What does this fold into?
Amino acid sequence: MWLAELFDGVTLGHIERLGAGPGSHCWEVGAGGRNIPEALVATVGPSGRVLATDIDTSWLEPTGAYEVLQHDIAADPPPEPGTFDLVHARLVLVHVPDRARALATMVAALRPGGWLLIEDADTALQPLACLDDNGPAQRANRLRAAMRELLVRRGADLSFGRTLPRVLRAAGLVDVAATGSFPVGGLACNRLEIATIHHVRDELLAAGLADEAEIDAHLAAIEAGELDLTYAPLISAWGRRPAE
It folds into this structure.
């Protein structure tokens, strides 16, 4: 919900600029929820087609307006190769160990001239939780550094987002370009921070990267509206399969 609040407008703006419209065939990879598939349905109209895939499709709640398929982008072959005008994945590749294979699957699904839009975070581009490193923000930044350390220990690539243009060119795409979106402050950033802290709290404590008092004080500062939190920049990169 909160990721959608931050980034759906960004994503849909790129999709519109890449020319998706009435009659387009679109594949939403790792769709998660129904927001983007439903927006694509409105874009492509009754003459178009939208396929939404994920390993877990339980959040998609299909109404018949778009197709739903359980699909592992890192292991399964592309559905209907060479047929899609647009393939999109947001915050997907960063979680996939075999990114090269996943990317090749998406490229293979494009028709000649079709566009691939990949969006992933680059945590290392903005390591601070708060740009204003003062008062409670200093504690927030210490905790953000601890969470980044957890990600590194898990094997995450904190600078993956910035590599997307190079990755798309290496996959054989042309007309490659990219942009970034960097949210600062607001309810969505606050709710995401709270959810993330709750999710990793036990790991932070077990690793000795934070203590109970520090975590509780940070959560209280968020609830009190004392912080202008950031979210990692989202890098949006796109490229076109060459016409044959």
